[in-house]
Please model this.
Amino acid sequence: MIEKIGADVAEQEFQRFADAMDLDISPEPMDDEDRAGFEKQKRRIIRAMVAGALVIDEDGQPVFTPQASDSAPVTFHEPDGAALMSMDKRKKGEDMGKMMAIMGAITKTNAKTFSAMKQRDLNVCIAITTLFLG
Model:
């Protein structure tokens, strides 16, 4: 992987994103399982930033440009109630369908945008969404 920005800059951008979206990313209150999950998602996001595939815009929103998929860049807006309700349209047990529904809602695209992505791109999008859902 060719570094577009340094890991220290990516870490600062990650913090700027968390601050702008008022995300509670403090590991202290997390149990071991939650902390491990958080660190995994954070690593994915930082790695995408270092590679230049993910940037944080002036409003603190992540903008991801898929690298392995033929998809346009997507901007992850802060979820609102309607975005959260989009998951309710899926049945119990349709966890990936729920994830795709909310990703479509918060990027103002649709679930098909994500169902067409290669897994390595999709994993970055899931990491961002997971932090929003905290």
User: Anything to note?
Assistant: The beta strands are 54-56, 62-64, 74-75.
